[in-house]
Design goal:
By secondary structure, the chain is α/β, with parallel strands linked by helices. Helix content is about 40%, strand content about 25%.
Length: about 120
């Protein structure tokens, strides 16, 4: 896992790049939040979709809700970056749409859009 810290509009943002899955369950999400906060002191993080286990995107598992609740509880805004068009689930598309209207959790196609969204959220 490589973490890069940037500052945009006076907001610190941690950009996490990883070739392996980092978040598989609630505990690994807590470990991730703690590591990012400790190493960067940022309240915003960008993470590529491939660093999250596939079960996260199956809402029936309830994993997405449990994991994202931890980000909210620990006051860390997160932008998950990737192509979400491959998912055919209407409930997941609705979840992504509603999340993107909020101020804490975003599902975006590019790192550039994630930086813009987090620095203005």
């Amino acid at each position: 896992m490589k973490i890069t810290k940037i500052k945009e509009n006076n907001v610190g943002i941690a950009i996490v790049c990883s070739s392996e899955i980092l978040i598989t369950d609630v505990q690994s999400s807590l470990d991730f939040i703690g590591t990012v906060r400790y190493e960067t002191d940022c309240d915003c993080v960008i993470l590529n979709k491939s660093a999250i286990c596939g079960e996260f995107f199956d809402l029936k598992t309830r994993l997405a809700g449990e994991i994202l609740q931890k980000f909210i509880n620990y006051y860390m805004k997160v932008a998950i970056v990737g192509d979400f068009s491959m998912y055919s689930s209407k409930s997941l598309r609705d979840f992504i749409y509603e999340s993107n209207k909020g101020k804490h959790i975003f599902f975006l196609p590019s790192e550039k859009e994630a930086i813009k969204k987090l620095s203005n959220a």
